[in-house]
Structures are given as structure tokens and as C-alpha cells.
Design goal:
alpha+beta, Alpha-Beta Plaits, 10-stranded mixed β-sheet
């Protein structure tokens, strides 16, 4: 069966998350319903990574097997038409035909995420579901210094949800950078894979560093404790964006 790789953008606000669930409407279900409406086929759309309720994506990658060998741009446009008719806040940005060795999840070599914090006294209106509002200033340089203690290959038990289903807490974090532009603080993270709630756990802990409540040494001690109780508060989902996924042979972004 022809296999298609798709790059997908979505607003996670109205969904229970990426994965199909019994307790509400998911992004995966929205895409599978669009394929059903177009082709009459019940399919499983497989994603590169799961996102929680309220988490957004600018470059989630999925794959799907279809009976017909579609022209990629025709498939993209048709799926977007059905997604629009259904009122979904999901868009298919790109479609490529791939061979059946490609797997959106298991072929990935790097995943990139962004966490956004806006620091200002006034509450958020336009960005209310696109960033974590923090009413007081944060020292982004202190946050960045603390973040560097987390880069590398570590046991990330401290920054892992108690409900994480990964077999091991060991991960290699390639990048964790904190930058500021005006009121906007951006935390960018890159790794081959992440644990459940890992980036939101990072963001909550780094906020404490930005407030002067944790030093880089204390963040490193929290990591080395391998104890969930040492983690700062988990940051809310609305600030998190799944930016993109890298695969062998892709052009550098």
C-alpha cells in the first residue's frame, strides 16, 4: 500500500491531545476522520510524538497507508478541505510519498520543541492559549545557565511524569537554550526523544531559576536526585509547541 508522510500543524487547545482517546476528541482522530471522509478507508494515522491536551504543533510528522497512490499535493488539499468542513483546528502542511520503511515515530533522529513564557503585569489576551503568562520579570540568563546543567546523557527521573510509560528514564538532551526578546522568553529543546512531561518539567524548574529561587547547582542537584519531588512545578501545556522532526536524508532546517 502506498505510504504518505505528512507534516501537520495544529492548535491543541480544543483537543484531549494527539492520541486517540475515549474521553474526548483528539488530533489523531481528526486526521483519521478526514481520511475516512475522503477515501472511505478506516486508517491509523501514526505520529512522531504524542502531545498532551493544550499542546500545539507547528511540525508534527505523521504517516498513513492508503489504498490509492495519490498525488501528494492533491491529497494535502483534499484533507485540508475536509478538516475545514469539520471545523478542525488542524492543517496538513506537506505530503510526501515514502516507502514502507519510513515510520514517523521510529525513523526520527531528532525532535525539536519550543516553550514560550510571556512576562508582563497584564494578563494575556491574544496569546492566552499560546504562552505561559508570568506576571513578574524572570532572569533569562540565570535560566539559561541552569538549563546547561541538564544538557547531555542523564537519568531524567526528576523531570519525568509519574505516568510516563517509557522503559527507561535515560535520555540524551542535545540542546536546552533560553533566550529573551522583549517580554517573550523562549526555551528550545532538542533530543532524539523525550519523556512524558519532560519539557514542561524543565520549564517549571527553570522558572524557579529565573525567579532566583534555584541556582544552577541546585538544578543540577535536582537532576542528580532522580526524584520527582525535586522537580519544580510542571509548566502549563499552552506554552509548548512541537516544532519539527528530523529524519535521515532531510535537508537541514
Amino acid at each position: 500500500m502506498p505510504r504518505f508522510r505528512m507534516t501537520v500543524e495544529y492548535d491543541g487547545s480544543p483537543y484531549v491531545g494527539w492520541q486517540r482517546q475515549d474521553n474526548g476528541h483528539s488530533v489523531q482522530t481528526a486526521l483519521e476522520n478526514a481520511v475516512l471522509s475522503l477515501t472511505g478507508e478506516f486508517v491509523s494515522v501514526r505520529g512522531a510524538g504524542r502531545t498532551d491536551s493544550g499542546v500545539h504543533a507547528k511540525g508534527q510528522v505523521v504517516h498513513v497507508d492508503l489504498t490509492r497512490d495519490w498525488i501528494p499535493y492533491t491529497l494535502r488539499n483534499a484533507l485540508n478541505a475536509y478538516l475545514g468542513l469539520a471545523g478542525e483546528r488542524v492543517a496538513v502542511l506537506d505530503v510526501r510519498a515514502v516507502d514502507d520503511s519510513f515510520d514517523a515515530r521510529f525513523s526520527a533522529i531528532r525532535r525539536h520543541y519550543l516553550y514560550r513564557i510571556i512576562t508582563r503585569p497584564a494578563r494575556l489576551a491574544l496569546e492566552a492559549e499560546r504562552a505561559w503568562w508570568v506576571s513578574k520579570p524572570l532572569d533569562h540568563e540565570a535560566m539559561h545557565a541552569a538549563a546547561q546543567r541538564l544538557v547531555g546523557h542523564h537519568d531524567f527521573t526528576t523531570f519525568r511524569s509519574a505516568h510516563c510509560q517509557a522503559n527507561s528514564p535515560m535520555r540524551t538532551l542535545d540542546r536546552l537554550d533560553v533566550t529573551r526578546e522583549g517580554d517573550l522568553i523562549e526555551i528550545r529543546a532538542t533530543a532524539q526523544s523525550f519523556l512524558h512531561n519532560q519539557i514542561r518539567s524543565f520549564a517549571g524548574t527553570l522558572k524557579l531559576a529565573g525567579e532566583g529561587r534555584m541556582t544552577p547547582d541546585e538544578v543540577q542537584a535536582a537532576l542528580e536526585a532522580r526524584d520527582r519531588a525535586a522537580c519544580g512545578p510542571v509548566a502549563p501545556p499552552e506554552g509548548l509547541f512541537f516544532l519539527r522532526v528530523d529524519y535521515p536524508g532531510d535537508e537541514p532546517a
